[in-house]
Specification:
Blueprint: H1 3-15, H2 21-32, H3 45-48, H4 57-61, H5 68-82, H6 88-111, H7 117-146, H8 153-161, H9 165-175, E1 183-188, H10 197-204, E2 229-234, H11 236-246
Helix pairs in contact: 1-2, 5-6, 5-8, 6-7, 6-9
């Protein structure tokens, strides 16, 4: 962490109203005096946003043998355990490992085969988007900890569990690539009192062509807590109509 990086984080923190401007200035002064607790620092962005050049196989093996639902549940359990890490950078690295493994595993499970380099290139923008979100989360934890107002362990645990939503979305997106012509997709919102409006709207807005439209875990306000589905249905006339509407 250098001064320029810290100032950029603090400027964003003030804009987002995580902290007041006076608190940000005080942190800069403490940094210059060497008085900041470095265990509260987030990963540098060069590390936080870095992605493997090839398929993240070691991360993926962490979820070996799990299907979509059990993989998502396991992610939540391990992410909540990682919230106990005393160092923010260590916690961030652990959650990054989990997110990359979960995304890769869910894609491979949906395809029914190991991922190829081409598959990973398709996944990289999705993974990078999650790393940006995670980086901001870690920076928010950092500045709040440095001013003596740290997030509680339950807060960190619950928010960390949300990151499994990206893997759920990937599971449907990649699985639908295997469908032939003539199929449409019905979004099925989970029918209970916690179902969010975007998921209800996604159900009402269907059907969709495979790999298009809202994805559970992505459109959902609950992210990693989403249990909605996308279900394929062979309907050539509807598929033709939807293809025509896109042209």
């Amino acid at each position: 962490m250098n001064l320029d990086h810290l100032i950029a984080i603090l400027a964003y923190a003030v804009r987002e109203q995580w902290i007041a401007e006076a608190e940000a200035l005080a942190l800069v002064a403490r940094f210059n005096a060497g008085a900041l607790d470095r265990s509260a620092f987030a990963l540098p962005q060069s590390e936080a946003l870095a992605l493997p050049a090839g398929v993240p196989t070691s991360e993926q093996r962490f979820f070996h043998g799990l299907d979509r639902e059990s993989g998502q549940d396991y992610f939540a359990i391990v992410a909540q355990q990682a919230a106990n890490e005393p160092s923010i950078a260590t916690w961030q690295a652990a959650l990054k490992f989990l997110v990359l493994g979960h995304i890769a595993h869910q894609a491979a499970t949906a395809l029914g085969r190991p991922l190829t380099g081409e598959d990973w290139q398709q996944l990289r923008p999705i993974a990078l988007k999650q790393m940006v979100y995670l980086s901001r989360f870690a920076e928010q934890r950092m500045v709040l900890a440095l001013i003596g107002k740290p997030m509680s362990q339950p807060q960190v645990a619950q928010r960390s569990a949300l990151y499994s939503g990206s893997g759920r979305a990937v599971s449907f997106q990649f699985g639908e690539q295997l469908l032939g012509d003539g199929y449409v997709i019905d979004y099925q919102a989970r029918d209970d009192s916690r179902t969010c409006d975007p998921c209800i709207g996604a159900e009402q807005g269907g059907p969709y062509l495979p790999t298009t439209g809202p994805m559970p875990g992505d459109v959902c306000l609950g992210a990693g807590f989403c249990r909605c589905l996308r279900v394929s249905r062979y309907a050539p006339a509807e598929a033709a109509r939807l293809r025509g509407a896109l042209q």
